[in-house]
Amino acid sequence: MATSFAGVPIFYYEALASILFFIGLTGAIARRNPLVMLMSIELMFNAANLAFIVFARAWLNNAGQIFAFLVITVAAAEAAIALAIVVVVFRFAQQVDVDEVRVLHG
Amino acid sequence: MPVVKVLTDGIGEVDLTDIAIYRQRDGYRQWERAVRELKSSEVLEMADRSGLRGRGGAGFPTGKKWSFLPAGDKPRYLVCNCDEAEPGTFKDHMLLERAPHLVLEGILLGAYGIGSHHAFIYIRGEFKRGYEIFSRALEEARAAGFVGKNLFGTGYDLEVTIHRGAGAYICGEETALLNSLEGKRGEPRLKPPFPAIAGLYGMPTVVNNVETLAYLVSILRNGPEWFAAVGTERSKGYKIISISGHVRKPGNYEVPLGTTVRELIEIAGGLREGRTLRAVQPGGGSSACIFEEHLDLPYDYESMAKAGSMLGSGAFVVFDDTTDFVKCAFNLVRFFAHESCGQCTPCREGGHWLETVLHRFVEGRGLESDLAMMRRVSSTITGLNLCALGDSIEPFLKSVLQRFPEQFEARVLREVASA
Amino acid sequence: MSSAPATSDLVNLTIDGVPVQVRKGTLLVEAAKLIKQEIPVYCYHTKLGPAGLCRVCLVEVEGMPKLQIGCNTPVAEGMVVRTRGESVEKGRAMVLELLLVNHPLDCPICDKGGECDLQDYAMAYGRGSSDLADPKTSKPKAVDLGPTIVLDEERCVVCQRCVRFDDLIAGERQLVLKDRGHRDMIATATGDPYRHNFTGNVTELCPVGALTSKTYRFKSRPWDLKRTETSCTQCSVGCRMNVDVRRETVLRTMSVEGDDAVSDWWLCDRGRYNVGYVDAPGRITQPLLRRDGTFVQIGWDDAFAIWAKAIRAALDARGPESIAALGGGRLTNEEAYLLARSMRELGAKNIDWRTGRQRQATPGSSGGTLLDLERAGAIVTVGESPAQLAPVMDLRVRKAVRHGARYIRVASHEAPPTMRHHDVPDVAAAAAAIPANVTRVALIWDGVDSTLARAAFAALERDGRTLLTYISGEQGNARGAEAMGVLPFSGPGYHVADTGRDFDGICADALAGKIDVLSIFGANPALNAADGARVRGALQAVGFLVVTELFMTETAKMATLVLPAAGAFEKSGSIVNLAGDVLPTAAALAPPGGVLSDFEIVAGLARALEIALPDTEEIERATIAAAAALPVGIAFGDERFAGTAKEPALGDGLRLRVTHHAFAGGGTLANDERIATLRPLPEAAFSRADAERLGIRTGDYVDLVGPGGTMHDLLAEVRESLAPGEVVTIAGLADAPANALAERSRVRVENVRHADALVEA
Amino acid sequence: MRKHLFNVGAILQGLGITFKYMFVRRPTIEYPSIKKQHAPRFHGLHELRRYADGKERCIGCELCSSACPANAITVIGAENAPDARVSPGERHAASYEIDELRCIFCGLCEEACPTDAIVLTPRFEMADYRRGAFVYSKDRLLVPSDAGVGTPPDERPNGIPADLGRVAEVKSTMNVDRGYSATHRGEVLKTERKGLAG
Amino acid sequence: MIPFWIIAAVLIVSALWTVTARKPIYSVVSLLLNFAALATTYLILHAEFLAVMQIIVYSGAILMLFVFVIALLNSGIAAVVLGRDRVPVAPAAAAALAAVAFVATAIAAAHAPAIAPIATHSPLGAVGRGNVFGSIGDFGQALFLSRLLPFEITALILMVAVVGVVLLAGDLTPYVPTRRRAEQTRRALREAILREGK
Amino acid sequence: MLIVLVKSAILLLVVLTTFAYAMLFERKIMGWMQLRPGPNRVGPWGLLQPAADAAKLILKEDLTPKTADPLIYRLAPFISLLTAFAVYAIVPFGANGDGSPWAIGDVNAGILFLMAISSIGVYGISLGGWASGSKFPLLGAVRGTAQMISYELSMSLSFVGVLMLAGTTSLTGIVNAQERVWFFIPQALGFIIYVITAVAETNRTPFDLVEAETELVGGFHTEYSGLRFGSFFIAEYVNMLTVSCIASLLFLGGWNAPFGLTMIPGILWFVLKVGAFMFFYMWLRATLPRFRYDRLMTFGWKVLLPIATLNLVATAAWVALH
User: Fold this and answer.
1) Chains B vs D: touching, with 3+ CB pairs under 8 Å?
2) Which domain holds residue B377?
3) Is the pLDDT of residue F316 over 70?
């Protein structure tokens, strides 16, 4: 396994991916705007994808790329559904504050 | 010849302006008799029985007119209308100048008849000589005790006031005369109320013509039956006719009513040599013409009305075949338009309009359409007016338009020179 | 109207197939109106009666051979009338054709075009064409009849309405018909300018555009005008009037047809023509504050704040005795009510409307209506007659005189009226002059001398006689102000309240330095008060003087704060006229920008003072109640109203008398340039004896010198009717204020300049 | 809906039409260089006319103003000074303004005018940069004082115009030399006509 | 080395901006930037197809969807008012701690002994050439041959998502053309009136 | 590297000039079709009109509405412009004798790159519309986003048929694959779908709901003025040029000469084909009215997409069978 590509050590990429992931995580936790939350989640997906691709490159095995592709696909589906939910919630409650929308709290 | 002398008795023979001469001829006898012996209602009754009709033009029965005065203690006035201005009339003029005492006696009798204590005589402004003569006569009568307070010792007061007009034809109309007498603008009043109810100064008033009043003297002298025996059934008594125009001897002729038109022309000397009669205007400027076919009609109120004209004030004007009827019509219309008081629209504007148009005809600048227009306008304005002046415009114009259209058509401008 | 007519008085007839039942003696024109069937008329006028001149009102009466004129045909039982039909239409068309024969068709030029009876009837009944081929007659146009009226002779249809108005209604007989036939024309009989107090009515009567008002000539077309019906507030009669406005300018005023109760369908020239002030250049449009001797413009908020601050300071320092309010004659009832109420809310009782010479406006319980006046058998005036004070009331007097009433003037110093009159030296003589059979007597007082009024009342009161009293005051809504409680001793509805100081008292207090804030609402005491010198001194002594005005009047010039107020045409409300009728006024146009009505001004002050104001509905209710309240317990010449003015000491010289003139006054009258020619010159009238003694002839210029002042450059007039020992001047002239000298004081004549000498020089 | 969506034929037809029109001669007039000649009765800019003697025809009667459906005309009348008349008769227009932006050029003012004073000329070029410039007052509406038409008014004292209410023979008095566009009948146009404009 | 640092800096800054931006649209824009940088990284890492997919799917579709929803919600009546964001101390601290731990682990893993690459059939070559590691051909063969099952499963998931979205956000009331709806309303109204009439 | 820069500069110049005259040309053509002369005041036959327009746009005041989001408002035109030009990095205009294309860069995944770039292009519209902060631009943006997403799908599917026939994603490869038969013959359906979606993607009539001046007074660029508006304007025309190039490359044989007319250089053929396609665009605009929004979406999803899928399946089957 190559430890560096074009002079960049692989763990740099790993670190980058993890930083991006945690930025996304923080956003997903801290923001109340569902759109921004979703985008943060996308950020986390991408961080994971980056890691996949880095490892695929490292092992020269495109299974990682395939996985990343599937992630992108599923992310698209997820985003579509999530946004649909946001729109429906907005129509229903006239607001999108996730803390205020608690109809399903039981 | 049926010429009589009732009012004209003595005129042209003796100086009747002299009270002494007048009294010699029984002057003021009837007046004294009336005041001393008769009640005023008896005088009224005699006037009524005589069938005397107003000689001023309208021919209204005098007794009936007097009887319209309402009972009551309001002062009453008698006004003698001596504003003779109808074209063709000159009888009152003559009476005033030649027999002033007769006129005055008539006024006094009339005033007594209606129970008035104040009589007025309204003398036309142009009758300067007549006014002077009558004034002198009045002074003489006053001096003789026929006018003034406590007449003949009976306690009856009667004052006579002379008023001179200022030369307006319309003041011959009784209400205009009253206005003029009051010092107002001489224009007819709106009737009702009639003068018998509210006349001079708002008091019951009778306005009578000079001739009418003058006949009272002879009626009282000879009795009403004497008067009623003459004339036709409804036009009784005598009348002075002022005959003028194309006759040899124009002048005033006193005749019984009912004399035929032909006789009247004969009385006045007949037509000039070689001339033929074209028309006669039997009742002054405001009457329509009568023609050859009417020559044998009796000259009285009814017959003249039947012939489409009227007897009016007895101004009998004769036209022979030299007459230019366009000029005649223009002359008469101009007179009426000029004399219109201007109060009411049809007379004021219609008269002036017709005058303008007729003037064009006289100058030979008539229009074809004017003939129909004149007929339409003149006939429509008749009957729309406050007084009779406006209605006087039509009759003569209409009758000559109808009878002699060729004279008018000859003055129509057929071609306009293309300038 | 008061009682249903008995059946015997009624006549049944048929008009155009419609059965009508009317009073006996009714004319066909009027009867046809009942079934809404128009009979065209020119010469006929409901108030003038028939004249039978125009001949356009033709109708067909069954059984009569000729067409009858509807205007002079009284109804008869069983009469069958047709106002339409071939012969009627033919006759009318002929008359209209004839009317148009010499009528110029300059309708586009003519002011009447659009509201012209001739236009209307020609359209409705005319032929539409004429056979006229000749040129129309040419007559003078724009003939100057007088200071108010221009005649177009070509347009005249000789209906003589104007002539008959002048004869029958105004009684002046100035207008006559001159010449005859188609040349006849309207003119003044003497050739002098047509001039009296009612000239304007002829322009309204004129069915065509022959008589036009100089103020309205070519100003507008009738269809452009916005019409508002309101009540005139120029004098205390309160005539109903139509105000025609265009481009934010009052262009003309017209009387209201059918207003029998108040104006009798007429207007006086003052009410009609004094409207040009609305957009006069001298109008104040912003609050002005005196700062270092000159006025500076300030905003309304500041004005209210400064005013309120001054009042608060005065209240805190010296209590409610130190503030006072004056005025009310120009205010509407609502404004007067709000003013009185606001003042009393502050605890202030120094409030009075009597800033002029008039002392009282409510005649007490014996007050009659204007219609009553018309029916009186005798009319007695004490003090000044209503001829100049309340001109339209004077028309009622004239009407009564025409109907046979005896008109008696007590110790009058005015020019003799053109109607039959009896001048008597004192009240007792007046009582004696009343015919024995007269049961209704009207007593008219100018509101000045209470003692005289009481004496007259006592002298004329008699068993079996109805005595009706009137006070023809000088201020428009004086009676309203009284009813609303703008009096020191009474509140709204004549309820007795704590007694404060009246006008004289306020002046005295001011001179003593006891008044800190004096607010004057629409009054001009500096010019109009009887004792001018004293009043001016008092106003100067006030610490903070507020004046609401339209113009910089004599009083406003002395103020600390001048507030621009809306004029009578710019506000709605109600007024009470001298007969006690409550009349609405309506705003005909909006006031100029920056100008508030007195109502808004009082309300703004109250808000700045944080006084609780009643809401609009309550004001309305209270105003109506107060205006309708019967003046119970108020006597004619009441002593409470009498005031404290003293008779000036006797001395040498002539006694000064002050009279009113309809067009003499400050403010709106002085600032209307359209009526400049109608304003009187300052004059002094002498009796013949005095004039001869002093060597004065009519037309000379003289000065009058009295205690405390001088009146300069008065035009002398020798008046036969005056008693020796008196000199009469006109009140309220800004050029020569009569109140420079105390009324009834003794004056000397000085500096006589002869007219001929002046001409030579 | 299906019909509309699959109506390919119509689309093709439309394309054919537009294509065909590419080769059709264009009727456009090169306006500033070539000016169209309008009919003499074209409703363009107004003008206020005079009588042959130079007096204004307008008598300030405001009939145009009341006839105007767009309320574009403001007239304020005034009395003529008897010795120096602006117009025959007693009245003249002290102020006459037309807001050409409001005007709908319907010509009702012309119809209403009793003296044929206001007429609509074929002049149509009145573009400007300021709205205020479209309020035409008498200084721009009145024809030059020597451009009067018709018979001079009756010389009666204070008389009304002799031809009041009669239609005069010439509609416009506009004149090239005076800076008006040459648009009335009989005038020679400055530029030639070209293309379809001919 | 330098490109990496630049890209890393862009990635981190844009990610931070995404998370912290007040307006969601700024989040979108920064995320767009982030994705672009990420796509560049993919290219560097020989994932050509994925780089393109990243742009097409993520940037072109998913992010576009965000913009769409933002615009859609913005166009609604009520303004979206949100409360203050949460900053839960404990989770944040835990996240930071985890991040440190994660980075440490990554570094540790990097120092772990190398494992032989499981090579695929494509060689490593310049990005942009065909049939090299990560190229379309390479990727396609892997996807459709060796990894077909996960691909199909993903397709299923996508299908479910489509159905879900349509069910969620779609307007499920049956579509009625305007004209027919108007007709229905009219008929209803008429019937109502007739009923009232009885 | 230098060569790339020079190539880029030349290309930029060419594209911009083409844009300028395409615009003039469009106005002229529309004028002719509508019986008007079209612009003819600036220069002979109005040839300097583009310069005048440019001068006008440059001199115009650049306004940013108060309600706008300033950053994104200013960013949006650049996104549009950038993506419009970025495409030309890989578009080949011809080929040398050795088969190397006349292009700045030749990428194997060229067509994918193209799709990627064009999918970014919509951001210009949607962000610009959103950031204007007023109603009509927002509506335009929302419409634009939905329309682009909808039609991009069908467009991609129409590409896939070509890709399957050519067996490559390289644009040069695709052109070379058409030496014998241009793909618009076997892929007639795909070509029609492409033409339709291309019009939709560039927001041109009859699919110009994004701008729709009669309903939205200009749509997304209502609030823009001056050069920012100009950027959108340029982007639109460059996009038109792009899709014309793609049509030429993918379906019309690129620089391949028809009927063996090889004596005319390939580049001319390419220009001719692009020009014809551009003319078609303008022709359409002069002819067809605008779609209603709901019909546009219905058409995209319920008509175009199924047909495109059908085309794909058919092509796949054909390829598999051969």
Assistant:
1) no
2) 325-409
3) yes
Q: What is the predicted pLDDT for the residue at C694?
A: 87
What are residue C203's phi and psi, to 5 degrees?
A: -65, -30
Mutate to test the interface with F, among D4, D12, D18, D24 (most CBs of F within 10 A): D18
Query: What is the model's pLDDT at position C470?
Result: 93
Segment B227-239 mean pLDDT? 89
The answer to whether F72 contacts E70, with C-beta atoms less than 8 Å apart, is no
The answer to whether position B157 is within a domain reads: yes
**What distance in Å separates the CA atoms of residue C661 and residue C670, rounded to the nearest whole number?**
13
Q: Which residues of B60-85 are buried (b: 16+ CB within 10 A; e: fewer)?
A: ebbbebbeebeeeeeebbbbbbbbbb
Report whether B9 contacts B181 (CB < 8 A).
no
CB contact under 8 A, C104 and D90: no
> Where does C592-725 show beta strands of DSSP type E?
654-659, 683-686, 701-706, 709-718
Q: Is D29 a member of any domain?
A: no
Q: Considering the domain boundaries, does residue F52 fall inside one?
A: no
The pLDDT, as a whole number, for residue E113 is 56
Residues E68 and E139 in one domain: no
Q: How many domains does chain A have?
A: 1
pLDDT of residue D169: 46
Cα–Cα distance measured from residue C412 to residue D178, given in angstroms and rounded to the nearest whole number: 73
Q: What is the CATH number of domain C7-84?
A: 3.10.20.740
- pLDDT value, residue E85: 59
* Greater pLDDT, C538 or F258: C538
Residue B10 lies in a domain: no
Instruction: State how far the Cα of C726 lies from the Cα of C693, in Å rounded to an integer.
Output: 13
- For residue A59, give the nearest of E76, E117, E164 by CB distance: E117
Task: Please name the chains neighbouring D, where neighbouring means 3+ C-beta pairs under 8 angstroms.
Answer: C, F
Mean pLDDT lowest for which of A6-20, C168-182, C410-424? Answer: A6-20
Residue A95 lies in a domain: yes
Helix A63-93 and helix A34-59, axial crossing angle in degrees, nearest 10 = 180
The alpha-carbon radius of gyration of chain F (Å, integer) is 20
Q: How many domains does chain E have?
A: 2
Chain C residues near residue B381 by CB distance under 8 angstroms = 94, 98
Residues 158..187 of E with a Cβ closer than 8 Å to A: which? 158, 160-162, 164-165, 168-169
pLDDT in tens, B251-293: 999 999 989 999 999 999 999 989 999 999 998 888 999 999 9
C139 three-class SS: coil
User: What CATH topology corresponds to C370-471?
Assistant: Dna Topoisomerase Vi A Subunit; Chain: A, domain 2 (3.40.1360)
Domains in chain F: how many in total?
1
Q: Which of F105, F142, F146 sits opposite E75 (nearest CB)?
A: F142
**E151 phi, psi to nearest 5 deg:** -60, -45
What number is the ipTM of this complex?
Answer: 0.70
Weakly modelled stretches of chain E, pLDDT under 50: 75-81, 198
Are B110 and B247 found together in one domain?
no
Nearest CA in chain E to A21: E99
Q: Is B201 a domain residue?
A: yes
Boundary (domain end) residue, out of B286, B320, B354: B320
Q: What is the mean pLDDT of residues D129-156?
A: 78
The residue of chain A with its CA nearest to that of E153 is A70
CA distance B314 to B319: 16
Cα–Cα dist C723/C717, whole Å: 14
E125 lies in which domain range? 119-172
Q: Which residues of F touch D19 (CB under 8 A)?
A: 33, 283
CA dist C240 → C473, C583, F5 (Å): 18, 8, 94
C288-357+481-628, which class in CATH? alpha beta
Which residues from E are below 8 Å from A3, CB to CB?
A: 110, 114
Instruction: Residue window 95-134, chain D: list those with CB within 8 Å of chain C.
Output: 114-115
